[in-house]
Design goal:
mainly alpha; 115 residues
Length: 115
């Protein structure tokens, strides 16, 4: 079914909030409140309109930013982990490994993939 105008506006507002706050994103309840939707409506609408879950969208934003920082080469892997919202560098390394099949330092050495 087609998303309503209200749902679309809410999802796009939520998407903008996540882009601006992906390092420390709001809770799902807070995000839904800001978007003017219930949490379940936001989740369903986000998947329908954006094409992925809120959680995956945040992870993608973090990985895109991490790749940009890895490419600049002036920040350590630990600094990048904190900069993109991971409280533990090991969690960041694991997320990169799962996403790209290699470590952050290896990605930096080899050259970065496009997201």
């Amino acid at each position: 079914p087609e998303a309503s105008a209200l749902m679309t506006r809410g999802v796009l507002r939520a998407q903008r909030l996540l882009i601006d706050n992906f390092v420390s994103p709001p809770s799902l309840d807070d995000l839904a409140r800001e978007a003017g939707l219930s949490p379940s409506s936001l989740c369903a609408g986000f998947r329908q309109i954006v094409g992925e879950t809120v959680f995956h969208y945040i992870a993608d934003l973090r990985m895109q930013h991490a790749l940009a920082l890895l490419n600049q080469r002036d920040a350590s892997i630990t600094e990048i982990a904190y900069a993109v919202g991971y409280s533990h560098p090991s969690s960041f390394s694991l997320a990169v490994q799962r996403r790209f099949g290699t470590s952050p330092s290896e990605l930096r050495r080899r050259g970065l993939p496009a997201i």
